[in-house]
Amino acid sequence: MTSYRTIVVGTDGSDTSLRAVDKAAALAAESGARLIIASAHSSKHHDAAGPDPDQPRGDGYRTEGDAPVYGLLRDAAARARKAGAKTVEERAVHGVPADALVDLAEKVDADLLVVGSVGMNSMVGRLVGSVPRIVKRKANTEVLVVETD
To answer: Read out DSSP for 41-65?
Structure first.
């Protein structure tokens, strides 16, 4: 068994991303690691022309004040604790999801970065790059892509 100290997992609150949270929580529980659950958000002036398949859509999604991002982080953290993770932190990080997760993993000196596989096999994911593909390419730490499709 690999012993991790710090694990970062990305979520957008979707059922598929919560499967990645479940896996990360199980690994954190098994190794006694600190689990950081992160959700990336970008400014409300996001360029609609660029693909961002993991980001919730619509005007109802705000990243200010009591935004849904904080609710989804609380829900994911409660789920992780229920799965046995002892030390769980929530982070709303600004930026494009892949870059924000890689930056956070570097900032906290994570041993493992966990993401779901959504988008890897889509046409947009193959042409432009999905979050898991970009994370695997850019991260300077071990990356686990959890099959969530």
So the answer is: E--TT--TTS--TTS--STT---SS
How far is 136 from 98, CA to CA, in rounded Å?
9
pLDDT (tens digit per residue) in 22-52: 999 999 999 999 999 999 887 655 455 444 4
pLDDT tens, position by position, 89-131:
999 999 988 999 999 999 999 999 999 887 444 433 343 347 8
Q: What angle is formed at CA 136 by the lines to CA 135 and CA 139, rounded to 5 degrees?
A: 65
Nearest to 54 by CA among 118, 133, 147: 118
- Chain CA centroid to CA 110, Å: 13
Contact 111, 141 (CB under 8 A): yes
Structure tokens at 141: 């730490």
DSSP string, the chain: -PPPSEEEEE--S-HHHHHHHHHHHHHHHHHT-EEEEEEEE--TT--TTS--TTS--STT---SSS-HHHHHHHHHHHHHHHTT-SEEEEEEEES-HHHHHHHHHHHTT-SEEEEE-TTTTSHHIIIII-HHHHHHHH-SSEEEEE---
